Amino acid sequence: MTDDLLTITQMRDRFDVTARTLRFYESKGLLDPHRDGQKRLYTRRDRARLKLILRGKRFGFSLEEIRQLLDLYDLEDGEELQFRRTYAVAQERLADMERQRAELDEAIGELRDQLAAGAEKLAEFGRKTAAE
Question: Which of 72, 99, 102, 125, by CA, is between 20 and 30 Å from 12?
Answer without folding.
Answer: 72
